[in-house]
């Protein structure tokens, strides 16, 4: 039996791992490095606005093996189309990649994306040759519009960024997966490994995690747990779960039992 996930194609690249991992909020850089290794991730996201882009400064970029990991810069912390587009251009120049995880936030309390500005920024960047991975709300209509623009994937949130709430609306994610043809990567709000597994059980292509790993008491062990959760969830999806039922169904056949059974009609003796 094949117990490994099938390769994951994102735009023109193929990856073995279905777990994407962020690089912020770790207790220290060494823990971050060990957690990345434990996660098995191949795609690593970095916040371009928080990076020290000077080589040799002992920062995040100096600890990430570029031969092992594919860097995907994001526009975290941007609240306007102008800032998001400018940050994407800075990332392309600094890191030599046209890929960008696009974030255009609506407010600083919920950190929900602003759908109108997100669509506009995505349109501009796609026209300028970027490969856009948009962080968006779990709105099926918005996800379809982002696909129509030419985004490489939809990245709907599971819950507010850093909330640890897990997946709050699995039904919308399931609808999104059915409506769009591009990959669906669940982003934000992850808590336990069961949330990562659930995302994959719903048919989503991959999971992006940062705070759920970095903020754990043991980030390295949590990274390993998330890796297992992502794989287990996909195997469960492929296996096909049993249908939900209101009443019990005995796992062992009742025919031929010796003794008395209790039913709504009262005790029934076997012949």
General description of the model:
The chain is of the alpha/beta class. It has one domain (8-269): Aldolase class I (TIM Barrel, Alpha-Beta Barrel), CATH 3.20.20.70. It is 36% helix and 17% strand. It is built from nine helices and twelve strands. The protein has a five-stranded parallel beta sheet with strand order 5-4-3-10-9. Strands 6-7-8 form a three-stranded parallel beta sheet. It has a two-stranded antiparallel sheet with strand order 1-2. α3 (81-95) crosses α4 (115-127), α5 packs parallel to α6 and α7 (193-201) packs parallel to α9. It starts with 7 loop residues before the first strand and ends with a strand. The model has no long low-confidence stretch (mean pLDDT 88).
CA gyration radius, whole angstroms: 22 Å
Query: Overall pLDDT, averaged?
Result: 88
Estimate nothing, just give the exact number of structural domains.
Answer: 1
Q: What CATH architecture would you give?
A: Alpha-Beta Barrel
Low-confidence stretches: none
Head-to-tail CA distance between termini: 44 Å
Class by SSE composition = alpha/beta
Question: What's the arrangement of strands in the largest beta sheet?
Answer: 5-4-3-10-9
Order of helices and strands: EEEHEHEHEHEHEHEHEHHEE
Write out the CATH superfamily name. Answer: Aldolase class I
For the biggest sheet, the summary is: 5 strands, parallel
């Amino acid at each position: 039996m094949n117990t490994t996930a099938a390769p994951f194609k994102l735009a023109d690249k193929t990856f073995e791992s279905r777990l994407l991992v962020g690089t912020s909020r770790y207790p220290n850089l060494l823990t971050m490095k060990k957690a990345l290794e434990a996660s098995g991730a191949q795609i690593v996201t970095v916040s371009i606005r928080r990076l020290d882009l000077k080589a040799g400064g002992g920062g995040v970029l100096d600890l990430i093996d570029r031969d092992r990991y594919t860097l995907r810069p994001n526009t975290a912390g941007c609240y306007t189309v102008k800032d998001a587009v400018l940050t994407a251009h800075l990332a392309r120049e600094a890191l030599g990649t046209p890929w960008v995880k696009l974030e255009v936030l609506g407010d600083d309390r919920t950190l929900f994306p602003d759908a109108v500005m997100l669509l506009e920024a995505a349109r501009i960047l796609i026209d300028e040759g970027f490969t856009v991975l948009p962080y968006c709300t779990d709105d099926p209509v918005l996800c379809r519009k982002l696909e129509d623009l030419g985004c490489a994937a939809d990245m709907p949130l599971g819950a507010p960024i850093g909330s640890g709430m897990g997946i709050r609306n699995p039904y919308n994610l399931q609808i999104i997966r059915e409506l769009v043809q591009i990959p669906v990567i669940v982003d934000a709000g992850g808590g336990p490994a069961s949330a990562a597994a659930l995302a994959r059980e719903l048919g989503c292509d991959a999971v992006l995690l940062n705070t759920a790993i970095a903020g754990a008491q043991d980030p390295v062990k949590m990274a390993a747990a998330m890796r297992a959760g992502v794989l287990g969830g996909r195997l469960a999806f492929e296996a096909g779960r049993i249908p939900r039922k209101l009443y019990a169904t005995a796992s062992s056949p009742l025919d031929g039992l010796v003794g008395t059974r209790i039913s709504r009609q009262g005790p029934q003796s076997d012949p």
